[in-house]
Amino acid sequence: KEATFDAGKKVINEGEDGDYLFVIETGSLDCTKIIDGQEKVVKTCQVGDVFGELALLYNCPRAASVTAKEHCVCWQLDRESFTHIVKDAAVKRREKYESFLKNVALISSIDPYERSQIADCLQCESFKKGEVVVKQGEGGDKFYIVEEGELYATKDGSKVMDYKAGQYFGELALMKNEPRAASVTVSSDACKVLTMSRASFNRVLGPLHHILERSAVEAYK
Q1: Tens digit of each residue's pLDDT (9 = 90 or more) over 128-179
Q2: 146-174 in b/e burial notation, b at 16+ Cβ within 10 A?
Q3: What angle do CA 193, 199, 201 make, to 5 degrees?
Q4: pTM of this structure
Q5: Distance between CA 187 and CA 176 in Å, rounded?
Q6: Residue 213 banded pLDDT, cuts 50, 70, 90
Q7: How many CB atoms lie within 10 A of CB 92?
Q8: Rounded to the nearest 5 degrees, what angle is found at the Cα of 119, between the Cα atoms of 117 and 125?
């Protein structure tokens, strides 16, 4: 059913039980968590985003508070309807990616809530041997994590790095807003990569930028 919220209205309270998820039709809302005794914004939800699903997926208390930044119109879905429509598919997809992300060195150490946010941002893309996934000098709007297969990076025609499952690439262009520093080509017969858009990358991996930048500089220098 439709639900409207005025600016400043707290829709969800961290730690409480939850029986609904929400899909945003208009407006935006801030997700906040208590970190080191202070309430901090961890994500801003925009039109088309879903929030409140974690409590329904895992029968756990609300993982964060959500407050309307402006007048919002949302569609509210109750637990029973959610279970029948999307829970099984959503759980399987999220569990698959969360399990995989635990083996990605950069992401394995962050807390489960943040890892679930990353899992929800990922899209799978497939490539064949010899295909160029990113090309040196071109603009970049995606971050990549290798799910299956192998690839290699070349800079100015020279091979500089190999990639296998669990490794990532494409971060430098997004962090520095610069052209791609190297080309990346598929070396195995087939390859699957998990991609994340620039907006999602900045939102969910922002706290890890210093680690990403240091690793990227070492790899491509």
Answers
A1: 999 999 999 998 889 899 999 999 999 998 999 999 998 988 887 777 788 8
A2: bbebbbbbebeeeeeeebebbbbbbbbbb
A3: 50
A4: 0.58
A5: 27
A6: low
A7: 10
A8: 140
